[in-house]
Amino acid sequence: MTPTKDTPFRLGGLALPHRLVMAPLTRNRAAADGTPGDLMVEYYAQRASAGLIIAEAATPNAVGQTYPNITAIHRPEHVAGWRRVTDAVRDAGGRMFLQLQHGGRVSHPATSGLTPVAPSPVPLPETIFTPEGHRPAVTPREMSPDDIGATVADFAAAARNALDAGFEGVEVHAANGHLLHQFLAGNTNRRTDAYGGSVAGRIRFTAEVVEAVAAEIGAERVGVRISPGVTFNGIEEGDDETAELYPALVERLKGLGLAYLHVVYADPDAPLFRRIRAEWPGTLVANPVLPELTTDAVSRAVDRLLAAGAELIALGRPFLANPDLVDRLRRGAPLNPLRDRYLMYVGGAVGYTDYPALPDGPAQPSSDSIVAWDGDRVA
Which intervals hold domain NADH:flavin oxidoreductase/NADH oxidase N-terminal (predicted)? Predict the structure, then answer.
């Protein structure tokens, strides 16, 4: 029987009350040094009714910073700031993973103070936002084998920091044109050594990062996000390349016993999605394409992906504009419209913590979907 969005689910040692996950959403509300502040505490606590929150991308080292005021997880003050967030979410009944993201070439010295690094010296083919406004991208420095080893270690250390900060686990970001995706894609990885060339070489860095993180904190606490065919940040992947690359990556990772695989812009009718679902032995998190932000459209997308075999559905923009999204979908209530001007990056409370909830409080799930969270957390 196909589960519904209200069907409980066990993710490793973590009991989720339903199937709706808040996707990671970069919002640029951290301090300049990457430390979460009061607004972030409020924002995430507002959305604690998600079955699981995957918190926005946090960098594992200084050179991995993408844009101004994004979060980090490589210094004690970052751990302390995130601990305030996770405490508030847990007090509100929620659960959190933290996404770990290294920007690679998606960075700028005006933001990080450092020259970006990447698999190959191929610059981003577009401008990038910095504290000084949009600037032309710079040519990144090609990572040496020592750089690669150090970065793998940084990811593992960041995962340990995330658990110290109160997260239940981490998601390794291998999607949307950031560093791991840059190693996967042929147009950004022009290496001829063991980390380039063949498909086996191009997936090696991602696999080594995931393996190191799993060894550090336990595979049951680790998810991976991929975006087959997505062209964000200048990535170019042809259909044939994508069809060969991602099954190979799944094959490399599937024996680790990871918490989940998270597929961005999942289409339940696409052959590659169906193949990944068939070949991935564990939990699959699917992030749907949403051409419109309405209750009916979101509910249809959720139902289709659950019917196609995804266990959890990750929603981004709907949670951004609706702190009580789960309640609204249960009631069939209208969703708040997005205020595009404040969609992501402007800072402050407007368009961030001021989206209204329904006035009369949360609706209770139907009696056959009520489940007590037993507190059995993996952290």
Answer: 7-336
For residues 25-49, one letter each, b for 16 or more C-beta atoms within 10 angstroms of the residue's C-beta and e for the rest, the string is bbbbbbeeebbbeebbbebbbbbbb
Nearest by Cα to 227 from 182, 190, 258:
182
- Strands 9-11, 127-130: pairing is unpaired
With beta carbons less than 8 A apart as the criterion, state whether 335 and 321 touch: yes
Indicate if the pLDDT at residue 361 is higher than 80. Answer: no
**pLDDT for 21-39, tens place per residue?**
999 999 999 999 999 999 9
Q: Which CATH class is domain 9-364?
A: alpha beta
Helix or strand (DSSP H, E) at 90: helix 76-91
Reply yes or no on whether the pLDDT at 215 is more than 80. Answer: yes
* Tokens encoding 306: 């659950």
Distance of CA 294 to the CA centre of its chain: 23
Are residues 96 and 167 in contact, defined by beta-carbon separation less than 8 angstroms? yes
Ramachandran sector of residue 69 (left: φ over 0; alpha: ψ -120 to 50; beta: rest): left
pLDDT of residue 344: 66
Instruction: Find out whether 26 and 65 touch, Cβ atoms under 8 Å.
Output: no
Percent of the chain with pLDDT over 70: 94
Paired with 22 in beta bridges are 53, 315
Phi, psi dihedrals of residue 265, rounded to the nearest 5°: 50, 50
- Does this model's pTM top 0.85? My answer is yes
Task: Provide the residue ranges of all domains of the chain, joining segments of one domain with +.
Answer: 9-364
CB atoms within 10 A of CB 233: 22
Cβ(158)–Cβ(73) below 8 Å? yes
Cα distance between residue 89 and residue 181, in whole Å? 30
E strand or H helix that includes residue 129? strand 127-130
User: Would you say residue 369 has pLDDT above 60?
Assistant: no
Measured distance CA(58)–CA(32) in Å, rounded: 13
User: Hey, is 132 helix, strand or coil?
Assistant: coil
7: helix, coil or strand?
coil
Q: With beta carbons less than 8 A apart as the criterion, state whether 13 and 220 touch.
A: yes
Determine the 3-state secondary structure of 340 from DSSP: helix
Instruction: Give the CA angle between residues 182, 286, 64 to the nearest 5°.
Output: 30
